[in-house]
């Protein structure tokens, strides 16, 4: 087994009884939208090929692939590789759960494969399997292009196959702990500590970072916490002139005394992007295409401004009750906390692919809310700290934390629309699509 894990910007593994080389080349060609230094392909056996997008062109080949960030790198990798050995002896139920980070990891050796996703994870993995092939991919879109049936590997799970013995299983290895939150002070302290932890670990070694910024509570709170950490945040907003975000981002960045790059959306600038992303994503609904466009353009601007990483506030809505529909569910008597839990799982399993791919063309995405400790706090909170039906308020705990951190009332009292509406992009995209 290779003794060094390679950090990638996505990877693909193909095992085929027919032509593994041809199938690999066809799929990897469709994944070339990802930013990379070089594509590495390694033949593991006569019918198994491993390919990945190398970030460092000087790295040696490996069959241990990482997509994302691993905290406490040496110990975490050691634990996961030990899991490979435990599976062989049937003792994987004793696997240590304290592996931290936001990553997927895959090991392919001879006829055995282990795919592993961190307890909370924005790095998706999909597999497609039939009598002719087995495919493991960071991206679902090439599989969709070839009309292949595929399934996601959920977060906090490991997936093991021994092809020679026809052993195949998918196991969840982690469940969130339920924290004892006595009162509001407890809730605020837990959340503040968790967000600080996520930012510290995700931005370790980074002195300046770009943030996808709208002036809403999610991105503003991250900008504040990043700034407090001693890291310089650079705010980037793409929006239509005179849109809600156009006015709001300027106002909030001024209140925070932070640099803002505000770029106007134009029809001319969007037409080419729509054509490009539509070829990647295939037929997507208007909302998904609009969000993908926005994140893609922010990431491109971040890279052109000299930044390798982009901080994004995805995950906050699912954890803290940000969508309007959660208010409706609460009014109708549904168990909203359970709905939030399922939505957060769905985000990590499938929905995050849109955002990961859109950003990964230019930058490494960093999602501080999609973090194990942050999720643990959010899933332990009583609903009253997330939404108030009578006042029609959402993300209550985030607003209270913003207030505690000294942010002005204009920030923590502001009700925010979804990015595709507040930026004006969905309306403009709709006009462009229907005029083509």
Instruction: Please give the CATH architecture of the largest domain.
Output: 3-Layer(aba) Sandwich
Structural class: alpha/beta
- Helical fraction: 40-55%
Please identify the top-level CATH class of the largest domain: Alpha Beta
Task: Give the overall average pLDDT.
Answer: 91
The largest sheet, given as strand count, sense and whether it forms a barrel, is: 11 strands, mixed
Beta-strand content bin = 15-25%
CATH superfamily of the largest domain: HUPs
Number of domains: 2
Q: What's the overall geometry? A: globular
Which value, in Å, is the CA radius of gyration?
A: 22 Å
Could you outline the blueprint of secondary structure elements for this entry?
Layout: E1 6-16, H1 20-30, E2 38-45, E3 48-54, E4 64-70, H2 73-89, E5 101-109, E6 112-117, E7 126-129, E8 133-137, H3 141-145, E9 151-152, E10 157-162, E11 167-172, H4 184-202, E12 208-212, H5 217-228, E13 232-239, H6 244-256, E14 260-264, H7 267-281, H8 286-304, E15 309-311, H9 316-320, H10 324-331, H11 336-360, E16 364-366, H12 372-380, E17 387-388, E18 393-394, H13 396-404, H14 409-412, H15 419-422, H16 425-435
Parallel strand pairs: 1-4, 12-13, 12-15, 13-14, 15-16
Antiparallel strand pairs: 1-3, 1-8, 2-3, 4-5, 5-6, 6-10, 7-8, 7-9, 10-11, 17-18
Helix pairs in contact: 4-12, 7-16, 8-11, 8-16
């Amino acid at each position: 087994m290779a003794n060094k894990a390679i950090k990638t910007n996505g990877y693909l593994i193909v095992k085929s009884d027919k032509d593994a080389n041809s199938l690999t080349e066809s799929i990897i060609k469709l994944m070339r939208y990802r930013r990379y230094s070089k594509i590495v392909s390694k033949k593991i056996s006569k019918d198994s090929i491993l390919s990945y997008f190398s970030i460092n062109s000087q790295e040696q080949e490996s069959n241990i692939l990482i997509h994302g960030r691993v905290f406490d790198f040496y110990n975490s990798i050691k634990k996961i590789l030990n899991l490979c050995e435990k599976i062989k002896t049937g003792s994987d139920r004793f696997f240590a759960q304290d592996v931290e980070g936001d990553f997927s990891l895959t090991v392919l050796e001879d006829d055995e494969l282990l795919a592993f996703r961190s307890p909370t994870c924005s790095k998706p993995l999909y597999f497609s399997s039939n009598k002719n092939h087995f495919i493991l991919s960071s991206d679902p879109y090439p599989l969709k292009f070839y009309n292949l049936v595929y399934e996601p590997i959920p977060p906090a799970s490991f997936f093991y196959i021994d092809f020679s013995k026809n052993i195949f299983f998918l196991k969840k290895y982690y469940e969130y702990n339920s924290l004892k939150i006595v009162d509001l002070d407890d809730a605020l302290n837990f959340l503040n500590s968790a967000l600080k932890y996520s930012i510290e670990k995700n931005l370790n070694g980074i002195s300046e970072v770009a943030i996808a910024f709208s002036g809403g509570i999610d991105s503003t709170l991250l900008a504040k916490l990043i700034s407090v950490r001693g890291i310089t945040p650079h705010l980037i907003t793409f929006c239509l002139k005179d849109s809600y975000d156009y006015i709001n981002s300027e106002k909030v960045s001024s209140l925070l005394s932070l640099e803002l790059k505000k770029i106007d959306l134009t029809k001319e600038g969007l037409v080419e992007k729509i054509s490009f992303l539509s070829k990647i994503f295939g037929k997507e609904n208007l909302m998904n295409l609009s969000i993908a466009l926005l994140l893609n353009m922010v990431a491109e601007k971040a890279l052109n401004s000299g930044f390798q990483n982009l901080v994004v506030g995805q995950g906050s809505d699912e954890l803290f009750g940000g969508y309007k529909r959660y208010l409706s569910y609460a009014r109708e008597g549904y168990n909203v906390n359970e709905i939030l839990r399922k939505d957060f799982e769905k985000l990590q399993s499938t929905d995050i692919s849109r955002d990961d791919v859109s950003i990964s063309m230019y930058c490494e995405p960093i999602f501080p809310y999609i973090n194990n400790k942050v999720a643990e706090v959010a899933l332990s909170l009583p609903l009253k700290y997330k939404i108030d039906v009578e006042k029609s308020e959402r993300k209550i705990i985030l607003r209270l934390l913003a207030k505690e951190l000294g942010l002005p009332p204009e920030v923590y009292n502001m009700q925010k629309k979804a990015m595709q509406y507040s930026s004006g992009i969905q309306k403009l995209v709709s006009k462009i699509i229907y005029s083509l």
